[in-house]
User: What shape does this take?
Amino acid sequence: MTSDRSGAEAVLIEGVHDVEDCTRAAAALLQTAVDRGVTLAIAESLTGGQVSSSLVEVPGASRVLVGAVVAYATRIKAQVLGVDAARLERTGPVDREVALQMARGVRRLLGADLGLATTGVAGPGVVDGHPAGTVHVAVVGPWGEGHRELHLTGDRSQVRRATVIDVCELAIGFCAKKGVGHGPDRSSPMINQLQITD
Assistant: This one.
């Protein structure tokens, strides 16, 4: 499994990914969100709920996870998340701006500090001229926006798991560079549950 991960700090999970890798990346994101005092909303297409599922595997996720929308069909991206229908018609869902609009839309819809989004081609075939493994992940917050275009290898499950990890990494880097809030009360038992250890 390889990916093009340009520009953002990473959780450094390499190789073929399994469910535990997804949970570790999700736990790292949750800890970062707690530390920065931000809440999360997720818009998922090719991952089909796997990002939010990975987050809720971690005890204490409800402290920062507001909710998620699985916008698998293209029309749901427009009808529920407010993605521009003309753009979807022109580019299809595998597109940088679509990912950013999904993240903006879920952030607005669910009232969270950060919106995260995944869209792309899990495979095995080509979609709208995009080969399997072409993925866009995005994060949007009050201080800016972030995006990555990924070119992943592996089977359908591997592409989806790698996408979960990549969107978590993108959001962690986004928070680390532009974080808000004053940090949590370290005496909180919820923080102890979420503390990430090596």
